[in-house]
Amino acid sequence: MSAGRPRVGVAMESDRPTRERGIARLARGGAVTGIAVATLGLGFWLGRGADAPVPPPAPPPAETPPQAESRPQRPFAVALPIDQAGRLVALGGAEACALGGRRLTCTTDGGATWSEPVDLPAAPLAVVRFGEARLAAAVDGVVYELGDGTPTPWAAPPGELAVVDAAASGGTLWLLAHRYDEPGDPMKLPQVVETAVYTLGPGGTLEHRGSLGGYGGERILVEPTGGVVTWAPFDLRAWRSSDGGRSFRRLSAAQRFGADFGGLQVAVERRADRLPGPGRKARPASALLVSSDGSAWETVLEAPGELLVDFADATTGVVIARGEGVAHLTTDGGRSFSELWRDDRLDEAVAVAHVDGRFLAVTGRGLAFVLPLPQ
Predict the structure, then answer these.
(1) Is the CB of residue 219 less than 8 Å from the CB of residue 231?
(2) Which residues, in sequence order, are CB contacts of 276 under 8 Å at separation 6+?
(3) DSSP letter at 13?
(4) In the chain, what percentage of residues exceed pLDDT 90?
(5) Would you say the pTM of this structure is higher than 0.85?
(6) Can you name the CATH fold of 31-57+71-372?
């Protein structure tokens, strides 16, 4: 719908009934025992958005990638050539891009090495392969061809629209945009009067897929069937289109949705747990839920703090528990989890993605973790 949102050994079984639950969210949260309403961070990134503020820190420590093996069998970390990251986008094969601020960097070898940074006029939201071209959608509404490192405008929606999110799915680039009114009273803020969906067409131009009157959310999730879900990240409002954006219907507050991985639907819900004792603040927590039909959902992992998640297919996935600095692995669709990797720096992860038979996770401070799967 991050996505951020990004995603990263000693094998140990988790305690399913209590501790075993965690991820960054692809779905809306529900009300929490009278304390707070969860927000969602899409991650499909399943991580936080590129616009999440990240202070520019000193270059992070990193390990040197193992040179003896072409496919290292243990996790390692490398410093990205950008000092912050908010999203991670898998492009297919061993290719992926990390996005942060107004810059992005890409890998073509599964995360072992990264390209020189590309500076864009505005913050990038998503990247997609379009034939031989690599295209990036930015918050200024322009789709840029990255070329050899110099971004060139490729396409743009009408100038009166403000792009708020973008997603790459199945080789297609989707953009979500708002149109605002012009209040006559200078003391009033502009309001959203239209929410529009665009895709990059076969000819390389942006095509208007449909619109929703008024505010229709700030995040977009593209479903494998061609459906589209848009939602508000800070409350329970969401809308679904079953015809590729031509028409939308409002989802009820009780209706969950999630990312589909080969028939397994995955969602993360956030909440706040009140700590016992007078004057103690509530503690954020997250729950990972899975469903095979989109109607019956099972909570399979819970953890304090935020959770980030991505799956390779309906069985194999990685969940990063930011509050614990742990990457959990499931190979049975969430029925059980083992510890894939533990590193305190994973507390700062903002996105995770499956790339070329392994998982990558990036941190807000510009560090990438390469997480090979156990053989």
Answers:
(1) yes
(2) none
(3) B
(4) 57
(5) no
(6) Methylamine Dehydrogenase; Chain H (2.130.10)
